[in-house]
Amino acid sequence: MAISSTDDFQTTIHKSYDKMSELKAFDDTKAGVKGLVDAGITEVPQIFVLPPKDRPESSDTCETQFIFPVIDLEGIAKDPIKHKEIVDKVRDASETWGFFQVVNHGIPVSVLEEMLQGTRKFFEQDIEVKNQYYTRDITKKVVHSCNFDLYSPSVPAANWRDTLFCIMAPNPPSPEEFPTACREILMEFSDHIMKLGKSVFELLSEGLGLNPSHLNDIGCAEGLVVLGHYYPACPQPELTMGTSKHSDSSFITMLLQDHIGGLQVLHQNQWIDVPPMPGAIVVNIGDLLQALISNDKYISVEHRVLTNKLSSRISVACFFGTYPLASSNLYGPITELLSEDNPPKYRVTTVNDYASYYRKKGLDGTSALLHYKI
């Protein structure tokens, strides 16, 4: 599965290279990228090698010093002036960045640290224990896999990342179905994240000039899926990506990242590092909030994750949305935000339809929103 040299990809793919067979052989190991690293590989297998134009080294790098928005939530419930200031900051960040970090959000640092440790413990345990969760069956509520879009023909290369997928709301599995390595902390952390998520939706609602409960009332916080990501150290980080450029399919995503770094946001056509901050939670606007709710007032910004040679990276991404509920609710730009000068830019659809299209398309470098533009 190893490539013989970088030049092989730059000129032409070997006739002997059968991508689908390579993908299946890798997937059948049920060991993920972690399994490759444990096997001692020194070169990135061909299925992970990006075309030269898509590699991180060929991207626009940030030459301007941007200050990534950090919003302090302390005192928000006690001081009306502070509350208004925070709403203004959330609105501004959501309109210009599509991303911000929150601190003093009420989740104990001990819970955050334990969640990161529990996620690492899952991925670094014996493969025989992890294997029982490895599947491509998307009806399962707890899934260990490598690349949800591994077999998508439009995706140029697999990402250097393993994932533990857990549905946490509204119908989570029984506690016994969660991996023992992170069972208790996963449930505790998710309770905290759900509470924080609802609070952030209130701020986002106010930022749109709506009643604070509006986004929660229409079901934006109904569903919660928590993904633990493991990015192993990579022998050739210049050839591949931890997560390819994409925007999220959620209403919002809340992310806990460790101290390693690697997350980047595309801001003003430049890739900006999202600095790891102890105790901080990253919030980013998802496609559903940009298109099906705010009619492009808030923006769902593209982001990516770089790999590195030195150490593995852990993150925990919490996606708020109604998927995978069997919901027939129709979503479209909120009527109160529309006018003759601001007509709807997207057609009405269900979250299930959007999520299905997003999964089928995969992380191919294009926005799924284009499919729903009027």
Task: Describe what this molecule looks like in 3D.
This is Fe2OG dioxygenase domain-containing protein. Belongs to the iron/ascorbate-dependent oxidoreductase family. It comes from Solanum verrucosum. InterPro entries: DIOX_N, IPNS-like_FE2OG_OXY, IPNS-like_sf, Oxoglu/Fe-dep_dioxygenase_dom. The chain has helices at 6-11, 19-28, 32-38, 80-96, 109-123, 127-131, 183-207, 214-217, 287-291, 351-361, and strands spanning 70-72, 99-103, 142-145, 162-169, 224-231, 243-246, 252-257, 263-267, 270-273, 281-285, 303-305, 313-320, 330-331, 349-350. The chain has 374 residues and is of the alpha+beta class. The protein has a single domain, classed as Jelly Rolls, CATH 2.60.120. The protein has an 8-stranded mixed β-sheet with strand order 1-2-10-7-12-5-4-3. A 4-stranded antiparallel β-sheet has the order 6-11-8-9, with no helix packed on it. It has a two-stranded antiparallel sheet with strand order 13-14. Strand 1 (70-72), helix 4 and strand 2 form a beta-alpha-beta unit. Helix 5 (109-123) packs across helix 7 (183-207). The longest helix is centred in the middle third of the chain and has 25 residues, at 183-207. The model is unreliable at 1-15 (pLDDT under 50).
